[in-house]
Design a protein that fits this description.
It is built from 18 helices and ten strands. It has 450 residues and is an alpha+beta fold. A hairpin with a 2-residue loop joins strand 8 (379-389) and strand 9.
């Protein structure tokens, strides 16, 4: 695990772990008036070195404090995440997140495969948002190639991306409520999630790891039964979200476990580089779909829900409203769905339609060359593309050396960055609050240990 240390005499906060690939403070500079300048000035004195974390930490002799491990096998960490908690009675005084138990080397794997072969790898980062992972990777490669995506493919991408957002939020809401003792909401959320997974099965034959996106468009047009199922889903979903709201929002047990718990200020969020519902719950109106639109999001009307207190309860409210907004976006995209192809016309990037293969030798040659050799983006080019995932800013960085495989592929997962917000949220809180605070971040460890 990389821990940041300073080269000057100022003592750092040892709980802050910085992503050494990219600073995430710059986009928010105008919002907080100078915070990003302070962050950049502070970042100039940081350097990275690897330090070993004591696998068996102990409290100092004579201390009444206790050190316990939460995880890596604990149901409320939602994956193999380990937290080393130092307690003074029932109060958490120090937190050390320990990661690496699920490291799979997927970034390195993507660098050993042709560009189009890596789409299936992206499904495995955040399994609750596999289509969103496909999308950001395809957008990055398409930017590298300068590819133009047909309007129908753009609209289909938006529809399935918002369905994936709904699915991810339903998993979060159901499991978070279950962690806090609300079992009914868990079953309700997974009831609606099953409808979404069934729709994914209709369009691509897979429920969880969809791999629906393709470089240049989508794998195939959606069948008629998909649109029928989607229409049925949209008719009931707003009412179902209101059911969750009825069960939780004014529930005294739920509100006592979440209100005023795990608060973060706007300044802390900017310094930590956190994004997504964590950021918006503190009142920062930032959503990449609005700030830097992609896939035609500029054509849809939707609001950015924000909170006021930056606590666990506000993060819940933000995600609840985001589900309503996703339903609205899908309805707009479905109502204005254009006719036309679902893949770009450049046969050096996108496979020719199957019907062409029986009649055109040129199509067969393009198909053979693309499958066996792939394509070659311009040499010495690099791109970074970010999308708004259910958990925050999901980014993909690709560097090309002119070959048919990425020279470097880096995944900026929001779970990894948002995890460093855990210590300032937990320290000073009661041990009983740990589960609620962890759940409010919505961590998927596959997005951390990559």
């Amino acid at each position: 695990m990389a821990r940041a240390t300073r080269t000057d005499k100022t003592q750092p906060d040892p709980t802050k772990v910085f992503d050494n690939v990219r600073s995430d403070t710059a986009p928010y500079a105008a919002m907080l008036g100078g915070v990003s300048e302070q962050a950049q000035a502070g970042a100039a004195g940081w350097q990275f070195e690897m330090q070993k974390i004591d696998p068996h930490p102990e409290a100092p002799d004579g201390s009444e404090r206790m050190i316990i491990n939460m995880g890596p096998q604990h149901p409320s960490t939602h994956g193999v995440l380990r937290l080393v908690l130092e307690l003074d009675g029932e109060t958490v005084v120090k937190v050390e997140p320990v990661i690496g138990y699920l490291h799979t080397g997927m970034e390195k794997t993507m660098q050993s495969k042709m560009y189009q072969q890596s789409i299936v790898v992206t499904d495995r980062f955040d399994y609750t948002n596999s289509i969103g992972n496909n999308l950001v990777y395809c957008l990055a490669v398409e930017k590298l190639l300068g590819a133009e995506i047909p309007p129908r493919a753009q609209a289909l991408r938006v529809i399935v991306a918002e369905l994936s957002r709904l699915s991810a939020h339903l998993v979060w809401l159901g499991t978070h409520a279950l962690d806090l003792g609300a079992m009914t909401v868990y079953f309700y959320c997974f009831r609606e999630r099953e409808m979404i997974l069934d729709m994914f099965d209709m369009i691509c034959g897979a429920r969880l790891t969809a791999s629906y996106m393709r470089i240049g468009g989508v794998v195939a047009d959606a069948p008629p039964e998909f649109f029928k199922a989607l229409d049925d889903f949209l008719k009931i979903m707003d009412d179902r979200i209101n059911e969750y709201d009825y069960l939780l929002t004014q529930n005294e047990i739920f509100t006592r476990r979440t209100k005023g718990i795990g608060e973060l200020t706007q300044e802390q969020i900017i310094d930590l580089g956190a994004s997504g519902p964590i950021m918006r719950a503190a009142g920062i109106e930032w959503d990449i779909r609005k700030a830097n639109p992609y896939s035609g999001y500029e054509n849809y009307e939707f609001e950015i829900p924000i909170g006021a207190n930056g606590d666990v309860y506000d993060r819940y409210l933000v995600r609840m409203e985001e589900m309503h907004q996703s339903v609205s976006i899908i309805k707009q995209a479905l109502g204005g769905l254009p006719e036309g192809p679902v893949k770009c016309a450049d046969r050096k990037i996108s496979l020719p339609p199957r019907e062409e293969l029986a009649n055109s030798m040129e199509a067969v040659i393009h198909h053979f060359k693309l499958i066996t050799e792939g394509f070659h983006p311009p040499k010495n080019q690099e791109v970074y593309v970010a999308v708004e995932s259910p958990k925050g800013e999901l980014g993909c960085y690709i560097a090309s050396d002119g070959g048919n495989k990425p020279y470097r592929c880096h995944w900026r997962g929001p779970s990894f960055v948002n995890l460093q917000a855990l210590p300032p949220m937990l320290e000073g809180r009661l041990l009983a609050d740990v589960v609620a605070i962890i759940g409010s971040i919505d961590i998927v460890v596959g997005e951390i240990d990559k």
